[in-house]
Amino acid sequence: MNLKTISAAIAAIFAAGHFTASACTSLIAAPGATADGSAMITYAADSHTLYGELYSTPAADHAPGEMREVRDWDTGRLLGHIPQPAHTYATVGNINEHGLAISESTWGGREELVDTTGIIDYGSLIYITLERAKTAREAIKTMTDLVAEYGYASEGESFSIADGNEAWIMEMIGKGGKSKGAVWVARRIPDGMISGHANHARIHTFPLNDPETLYSPDVINFARSQGYFSGKDKDFDFSKAYAITDFGALRGCDARVWSFFKKHSDDDIDRWLPWINEAKGEPMPLWVKPARPLSVRDMQWAMRDHFEDTPFDMTQDVGAGPFKVPYRWRPMTFTVDSVEYTNERAIATQQTGFSFVAQLRKDMPKAMKGVLWFGVDDTNTCVYVPMYCSIQRVPRCYAPGNGDMLTLSWDAAFWVHNYVANQAYNRYSQMIPDIRRVQNELEDNIAHAAADIESRAMHLAPADQERLLTEFSCTWADRSTKRFKELGDYLFVKYLDGNIKKETAPGRFARTPEGQCASPVFGGYSEEYYRSVAKDAGERLKVVNP
C-alpha cells in the first residue's frame, strides 16, 4: 500500500522494472499456527507522507436512502456516494466490533487494467467492509459485491482477511474500464500454516473446485481475452497473468515474505532463493508450516525484520555505515558507472505511518474477540499497545487531528516515536540497546497487564467490559508515549556530540565528586569503518612522527 502517495502510475513503475517508493507488508498466521489458537494478521502502512493515527467509526443505524461518502483513501478525493445499510458496525483501525480484521498491500499490476471509472478504492473497500461484515467470508462477499456494483478504483491489491475462525488472502485487480468490477481470487490459509504478502501477487495456480478457494467467474476468461494466458484452466496462474514478475516484485517484495518463512519454518526455505533472485524454478508457496506455534510477540518481532541472518542482511555491507544501520534512504535503486543497484527493502522501514498485529479469538467474549496491537512509525522501534475491538474512544496520542505530517505535536505518539527512531538511524548500533531495554520493558508490562485485565473483564457485564477495556487501552497508549518521550530525551543527552555519557545505572548519568559531568566515552567507529578510511585516505591521514 502507498497511502497518500500512490497513483495509477505505480503500475507503470512496476512495468518498468523499478521499485515503488512506498509499500506495505502483511503477514498471516492461521488458527493452529498460533500459541493461543487465534488467527493473526499484521500490517505495516508504509508511506513517506502518511501520518500515523488510529481511525474509528461508531456503530450506527441509518434511515432509508441515507448515503455514504466515498473518498479515495490515498488522496482524499471524493469518488462518489453509495447507499448505507440499515446498520453499520463499530470499527477501530482495521478491526471491527465482531473481531473481523482486514489489511492489504498494493502490487500495481498491469497498467492497462487501472479503472478510472470505479468509485470504490482499495482503502475505502476495507473500511466500508468492516462496517458491514461480521466474518471473513462475509467480508469477501461484501468486498466483491461492492466492486461489482460500483466499480473498482484502484490497481492490483492483496488483502489479508481474518476472523477468529479462519484467515484468507484475496487478490484483486480492475478490468481497465472494459467492464465494471474486478477479477479476483481468494484462498483460505489452512489451519496450522503461515503466509504473507508484500506488494506482489502471491496466488499462483489454485484449485478450481474447492470450497476453500473462491474466485470471480471471469478470472481466467478475462485473462485470455487480454492475451495474458492461453493454456488450460488448471494451469492458470493469477500472479503471472495479472501482476508483473520482475526484480522489484521478487527481491523487493516476495523476499520479505521469504524472510518471515525462513525465521519461522524448519522447511528448506533457501530452495526458493532462485525464485527470489532470478524468478527461476517454482514460485515460493503461498503458505508454509511454522516450526512451532507463533505468539503475538513473535508476530510483532516478525514485523521488525531487516533480513537479519540471511543473505540480504542489511547490517553486513558498507551501506550500513560504521554503526550497522539496517536502513537505506530512498530512492530504492541507484546507478554507478551505468550499472543499476538496489537497496534492500525489509519489512521494517523508516517510512511507516502505523502498523498492527490483529489477534482474533473465537472463544472470547465479544468485547475481547479482537485485539489490535497497534503501533506508530517504524515497526522496529514502536511499542505495540492493545486496542480492543470494543473500545469506545481512541487514545489521544493516536487520535486524528493531534498533529499531522507537517505539524509536530509532543502529545502524538507518531512524533514521539519518530523522535526516538530518527536519533537511532544515525548511531544505530550504539543506541538500539537502550531502545530495546525500554521497548521490551513496556511491551512485557503491557502483555502482563492485558492478561490481568482480561481476567477481570471476564466477570463483568458487556457494557462494563467495554468501559474497562477502553480505559485500559487509552491508559497504556498514553503511558507508553510518555515513556518514549523520556527515552528520546535520554538518548539526546546520552549521545550528545558523538560522545557516550557514562551511567551509574540505566538513565542515571555519572557525575564527578564535584557534581560535574563525568568524562564521557568516545565511542568512535567500527573496525570495518576504520579500515575503509585507511584504505581510502590512509596516506593522507597516516601519523608520521618526525
Largest sheet: 7 strands, antiparallel
Instruction: Compute the number of structural domains.
Output: 3
Q: Could you tell me the strand content as a percent range?
A: 15-25%
How many helices in DSSP terms?
12
- Main-sheet strand order equals 16-14-1-2-19-20-21
Alpha-beta classification: alpha+beta
Taking the alpha carbons of the first and last residues, their distance comes to: 62 Å
Tell me, rounded to a whole number, the average pLDDT: 94
Estimate percent helicity: 25-40%
Report the radius of gyration as a whole number of Å: 24 Å
Shape: globular
Task: Give the uncertain stretches in residue-range form.
Answer: 1-22
Number of strands: 23
Enzyme class: hydrolase
Keywords: Dipeptidase, Hydrolase, Protease, Signal
GO molecular function: cysteine-type exopeptidase activity; dipeptidase activity
Signal peptide: 1-23
Task: Characterize the structure shown.
With 546 residues, this protein is an alpha+beta fold. The chain has three domains: 301 residues, no CATH class; 99 residues, no CATH class; 39 residues, no CATH class. The radius of gyration is 24 Å and the shape is globular. The chain starts with 8 loop residues before the first helix and ends in a 5-residue tail after the last helix. It catalyses: an L-aminoacyl-L-amino acid + H2O = 2 an L-alpha-amino acid. Keywords: Dipeptidase, Hydrolase, Protease, Signal. It is an enzyme of class 3 (hydrolase).
